[in-house]
Amino acid sequence: MQTGRIAETDRLRLGNAMSSRDPIPERWIAETIQSYPPSAAPFLAGENDPFRNPVGHTLRESLTALFEELQGNMDPDRIAHALDALIRIRAVQDLTASQAVGFVFLLKPILLELQPGSNPVPLGVLLNDRIDRLALMAFDKYMQCRDQLADIRVNEGRRRVHVRQVTG
Question: Which of 51, 110, 133, 138 is the least buried, fewest Cβ under 10 Å from its Cβ?
Answer without folding.
Answer: 51
